[in-house]
Amino acid sequence: MRLILFGTGPFAVPAYTSLIENHEVVAMVTRPIADSGKRRKTAANPTRDLAVERELTIFDPPSCNDPDFVQKLNSLSADLFVVCDYGQILSRDCLAAASLGGINLHGSLLPKYRGAAPIQWCVYNGDTVSGVTVIHMTPRLDGGPCIVKKELAIGDSETSEQLEPRLSQLGVAAVNQAIELLASWDGESVIGEIQDKSKVTKAPRLKKADGAIDFTRSAKQIFDQVRAFQPWPGSFTSWTPPGKSPLRLIVQSVSLVSGADFPDATVAEVTPGQVAFCDKSHLWIQTSEGLISIDQIQPAGKRTMPIADFLRGYQPQSGDRLG
Known about the structure:
This protein is of the alpha/beta class and 323 residues long. It folds into two domains: 2-199, Rossmann fold, CATH 3.40.50.170; 208-314, Roll (Methionyl-tRNA Fmet Formyltransferase, Chain A, domain 2), CATH 3.10.25.10. The chain is 25% helix and 25% strand. The chain has eight helices and 15 strands. The chain has helices at 13-22, 46-53, 67-75, 92-95, 118-124, 160-183, 219-228, 307-314; strands at residues 2-7, 24-29, 35-38, 41-42, 57-59, 80-84, 102-106, 129-136, 146-153, 236-239, 247-256, 275-278, 283-286, 291-299, 305-306. The strands form three sheets. The chain has a seven-stranded mixed beta sheet. The longest helix has 24 residues, at 160-183. The protein is elongated and about 70 Å long.
């Protein structure tokens, strides 16, 4: 099949590598090169890197919906557009430039987690199953009928950073299966499963503020947040040592405290956000439901360290408050 690929981020790379090897890929459409502003390095674009490696024609219009660019797409006579991790919404006119329209590989089981950060919000909410969906595209964001869905179990302590490449690999078979279905489609009959609007949930783009830890949530919810927001925006709180300014703390790793974990010492009667127990190797924080153990932490301006190193150097006490 004659394809044009649209993508920017790493999630698309495994599927697109397979398509390049098995189909006629006319071009790669990606985001323009932009200076990140840090040491004059440009922002990462793994999909562009793949296109350069495979010597594909690359287009990087500021808007893929610009009339002149849509005219260019029309001239390429593609059968299908394949979109994944691109960052722009294709208009009706743009989609019409391919005879079969477009498909989009999305990192969730739609209609759950429509939006820019489906994997992170899935882990944040404590889901035990995720997956990928290939939709037949409409101008509405992630709103088209689902052609192919594939599920994947999430590990109990798996982070979103660990889950993303597994889902990305799952997308290879999903995209290829969707293209096979479209190759035999008559262009008129209903294809795929219409999304149930009542089951739609949102997965908005992450903001730095999303990483603030709210200790009035449960220990399990905080545990899920920490593994969801790695590596960005991270999960963070603050602590004010006696007589000093507040210290920002990036919480890198936590675990749940069970009854079997309790040492002989008595856990203090405290409210959410307070240190319930600490010794040379434990820092347990009270939540609205249960205790959370901070296992790895990064004080502002310092390296990430095991909690024992932090306790030795900073010496928080039971009853101290975080947040």
